[in-house]
Write a structure and sequence with these properties.
The protein is mostly helical and 197 residues long. It folds into two domains: 76 residues, no CATH class; 101 residues. It has eight helices and two strands, in the order βααβαααααα. A two-stranded parallel ribbon has the order 1-2. It is elongated, with a radius of gyration of 22 Å. 18% of the residues are buried.
């Protein structure tokens, strides 16, 4: 990566996850007082390795760092120092139309997904990010694929499979979660009735 042509932008996705890893490492070192902790082949911590690498990138002319995070204000030094001067841009959750567009785009690459009611899924995925919608759709597609292998018959993605995966991203005390749960249960009943015919 040090041979990157410049100017270039290095994107760090979910930098807040990296911050949590650093926090966990620091807590583990503190709890073990530095004894018996694996620090890699050269004795350096993960935090030292990563921040050293990012610092070396920053020192190269024409290299710009960008990062995404779930929440603002979630990173602190030394990561914060490496992305300064910091300009935060808030990206709002996608609208219903944007969520529908994400689902339609996903379906173009996954034929087993094409017969779903994407309008209903878009409605029940309110507040989810684009990545979360893709992740939930991907997991549902994997479920259908595994079912096809198990039965030897082609299995389409069912709305219930998508909703089960969407549910993990929704506040379980919310009305939206109840709607998702009710829809998934209704789909389960339909599947049971279809199998009994």
């Amino acid at each position: 990566m040090m041979n990157l042509p410049t100017p270039c932008i290095v994107l760090i996705e979910n930098i807040d996850n990296l911050q949590r890893m650093f926090n966990n490492e620091q807590a583990a070192i503190k709890n073990h007082r530095g004894h018996g902790m694996s620090m890699g082949g050269n004795g350096r911590s993960m935090q030292s390795e990563i921040t050293g690498y990012l610092r070396a990138l920053r020192q190269r002319p024409g290299v710009f760092l960008m990062a995404t995070a779930e929440h603002t204000g979630s990173i602190k030094s030394p990561l914060l120092d490496l992305v300064e001067p910091l300009s935060e841009i808030e990206i709002l959750p996608p609208s219903k139309k944007e969520r529908r567009d994400v689902l339609v785009y996903f379906a173009k690459s996954h034929p087993s997904f094409t017969e779903l009611d994407v309008d209903r899924i878009a409605e029940l995925s309110d507040g989810l990010s684009r990545r979360e919608i893709i992740n939930a759709s991907g997991m549902a597609t994997e479920t259908a694929y595994r079912e096809s292998l198990r039965t030897g018959q082609y299995s389409k993605v069912k709305i219930g499979d998508v909703l089960v995966n969407i549910a993990q991203y929704i506040d379980h005390d919310s009305q939206l979660y109840k709607a998702v749960e009710d829809e998934a249960v209704a789909q389960l009943y339909q599947d049971i009735e279809a199998e009994m015919l």
